[in-house]
Amino acid sequence: MFKIVLKTTLVAATTLATLQAGPIIHDAEYNILAAQNGEKWAKEDKSLDDKLAALRKKHGKAPNIIHIMWDDMKYGAIGHPMLNNVTGYVSPNINKIATNGMTFTRMYTEPSCTPTRVAAATGRQPVRSGMIFPIFPIHEMGLPASEVTIAEVLDDDYHTGFFEKSHFGDVEESYLHNQGWDEAIFTMYNQFAGQMFTPTAEAGGMTTGWADDEVSPYALDKEFRPKKWVWAIEGFEGKKGKEISTPVKVSEYHEFNAMAYDRVKKFITKHASADKPFLLDWWPNAIEMFSEENSPKQTPHGSASSESLYRLDKQIGEIVALTEKLGIAENTLIVVMADNGPMQEIWPETYQNPGIFRGGKNDFLEGGVRVPAFAYWPGVIEKGAVVHDIVHVADLFTTFARLGNKMDAIPRDRVIDGIDQTSLLLNGDGHGRRDHVFIYQGANLSAIVKQQYKRHFAGARAGLAGKGFFDLDKDPREEHPQMAQFLWAWPAFDHMKARHEAQIKKYPHTPVTRGEPYTGLELLKER
Amino acid sequence: MFKIVLKTTLVAATTLATLQAGPIIHDAEYNILAAQNGEKWAKEDKSLDDKLAALRKKHGKAPNIIHIMWDDMKYGAIGHPMLNNVTGYVSPNINKIATNGMTFTRMYTEPSCTPTRVAAATGRQPVRSGMIFPIFPIHEMGLPASEVTIAEVLDDDYHTGFFEKSHFGDVEESYLHNQGWDEAIFTMYNQFAGQMFTPTAEAGGMTTGWADDEVSPYALDKEFRPKKWVWAIEGFEGKKGKEISTPVKVSEYHEFNAMAYDRVKKFITKHASADKPFLLDWWPNAIEMFSEENSPKQTPHGSASSESLYRLDKQIGEIVALTEKLGIAENTLIVVMADNGPMQEIWPETYQNPGIFRGGKNDFLEGGVRVPAFAYWPGVIEKGAVVHDIVHVADLFTTFARLGNKMDAIPRDRVIDGIDQTSLLLNGDGHGRRDHVFIYQGANLSAIVKQQYKRHFAGARAGLAGKGFFDLDKDPREEHPQMAQFLWAWPAFDHMKARHEAQIKKYPHTPVTRGEPYTGLELLKER
């Protein structure tokens, strides 16, 4: 957000007017591609602009955008019953989106929640804003005001709404209504906080980590574990936010989610026939880890993960049906996806199993960062398209800006990792504009993907070509590092890394905002 | 075969007439299901009989059956571009069969070539005929004459043809034209023999295991390695077979395969408008491990496995097109499938990677015995059906007999493992009649599957419930054995095993035929 300067702001907010000189500053690797493909792309862009203009004319406004993104799901669990059947997941409505829309087979995210969400919202890899790990109660940090979100880019040309899990932190400038969204109901942290951070006695069944504190005679510091935290906020742009829920019982957590989902539907209904299009970021609190619902189980996998997905899939079906009922389906892009790979640490025997790829949440392996992802836009996106072009979640930022006819509002004073992938959406397989991904874990560059090749930096031995090279087409589980076959790639990947780092030196990272939490809020009770 | 008694026959062949008293003898576990579902099934069967009779009337004959089965492929590589893209395989024609036909998500085979092929041909798990491992040159053994193949069951009511890889052994009674097929071009062993068993000097590029013998001064026994072996035979029922190819150069191997494929097309064309329907078993010599073709590579995976599948997929497309061109598509069932999981021992870094399931060829894990499988029968099989009922490859035997209206010809003096799955083909998901699989490795019962549960016997600790229990819906990779959750299943699986073993005691196994190889053949040269 950059309209109001909050007292917690460490980086001075800049006005939009000063930012828009020159082209978007991409990472160096994109420039390599643009140099080789720029002429072709320019031609394609002209035709895409014509197409988008024709669509705007037809519908009287730019397209609505619905971005649905949930937690922790492996590639290969959803999209087709052939996958559902062997993984125990049930997702008929998402499968229908795959059949009638587009399936991405190389959608990359960041390896965990906050980082992926920041990349989607800002078009920048989270390392650039210091948002490098999931923020937990009470971290006293959050998304800097100087970051420009997609809601700020689309700005007054769109109605913008955000619902459920932001995970952007607990300082005032990170609140969603302070980051450009007109209307937001958001949780500052993740589902663990919402379900597991309350002492057992009060929680009525929720798991918690600190019941022992209450009884242990050795627990001299009763303040070590977070207690005075706040969870869910309702906010409207320019107004003070309100705490609306900090669950004590698991039932309160479910009530909050149900209420937020209801607001999602109301948001769509309210803006369906408005003069302006809408941007709806619905990042639901799925997975619900402790559920009183779905008894008996509705999915063969029977886990919190599959049961939550079952409920979410049903809701996604309802959202698609709602856009059809309201007559806006043909002017609405819906993107549904997970935010990172499966979390395999909790309840490893049943919660989320590994799939086609090796690794899961927080890994730099494909299993950590390659997610199920689908897009639906009847009449615009080819029915049943399956695209294998590389997409990074940050690309949604730039692509949404293009669709909203607001490329000029993307700031020009910083690196924008997001690449405009409109050509992929509209022209299909082989029309992507990215061939690489820089995979970070926290602040560390752990791996680089270029084309079908991947180099692991994490764990590599310095001083020799090592064995950290993989051909993902041949070895999708990254089980057989190869050396001789990749000696050619040793300098090639070194150069990529050097170019990437030079760009960082030229456009330095913004530090994460640290400050007093929960300011600028009406709280339900004093903390 | 049971029409002519060959001198190598150890078990006396029985005439058909003496066999047909009473119902088919299934394994005990099927009887458990029949007792619970028999009434419903009887009703369903009546309606299925009516449907099949109506189809016979419409087309003037029973349906043609084309069974295409190739080597070593993991579940999850083919059937949809979503899978192709991440595994590097390319299979547009098989994917089209999946889209327009039926996808099986729980098709079980035996864990290796000979066993699976015997199960398909005889409807009996291979342990019952001693065909428990892949037969190699010069094993001097093969399929007993007393086994009754699907070609013998369909008999004179069908034109029966077999092409390419039988793997049924090298004794006279195992030859395909002595086992009921009217016309056969078959290789007695597997592709390794065809491509790798010739000394390097002669082979012109083929890999071999024994070039060293020629030069080592310590190789006193020059006869230890097989040299005087025979590979491919052409045979017509009632006539003496002819050796037609024993490749020395890899080019001869490819020539043989091309010739056999040509004969496949000729067989279909010849019998398309015949009074009788045809059974075509085309079990191609795919994978070709050493190929001069496809240069540059046509598949991202780029392995012998994926390149072979690419060629085979093209041919499968041609076969489907041929049935359409000849106007027989609506009276032809086409089943395409692999014979077991991927072989991970050779060239493990590139040849065949693990997939969704753990394990590969010759494992009792799902990765060894759960294969990609699809069926196509326009107008009869529901378009795009995805069925999760358990099917075992032996079920094809009984199902084909039912479709051919020849259930009476199935012998009644032995256990038939194959369960009639016509209801599944015609009525779709949830209409299967099997809920279990006994998984053998050689002569050992290594695991039992019942519903979504699986118990490993191989490696289990005796005398305690152990930890060998898995819920495949929750843990498809069989990585987290569970104990407390499965204490109920300890006796239940024990009972299954006991019932299975009691049935074996009642109907003992037939020993494999052992004898002089290559009798009853015209050889290309003296051995």
What is the CATH class designation of the largest domain in chain A? Alpha Beta
Give the helix level of chain A as a range of percent: 25-40%
Reading side by side through the largest sheet of chain A, how are the strands ordered?
12-2-11-10-1-9-5-6-7-8-19
Query: The CATH topology of the largest domain in chain A, please?
Result: Alkaline Phosphatase, subunit A
What would you note in describing this structure?
The structure is a homodimer of 527-residue chains. With 527 residues, chain A is of the alpha/beta class. Chain A has two domains: 23-435, Alkaline Phosphatase, subunit A (3-Layer(aba) Sandwich); 441-506, no CATH class. Chain A is 30% helix and 16% strand. The first copy, chain A, contains 14 helices and 19 strands. Chain A has an eleven-stranded mixed sheet with strand order 12-2-11-10-1-9-5-6-7-8-19, covered by helices on one side. A four-stranded antiparallel sheet of chain A has the order 14-15-16-17, covered by helices on one side. A two-stranded parallel sheet of chain A has the order 3-13. The radius of gyration of chain A is 22 Å and the shape is globular. The model of chain A is unreliable at 1-19 (pLDDT under 50).
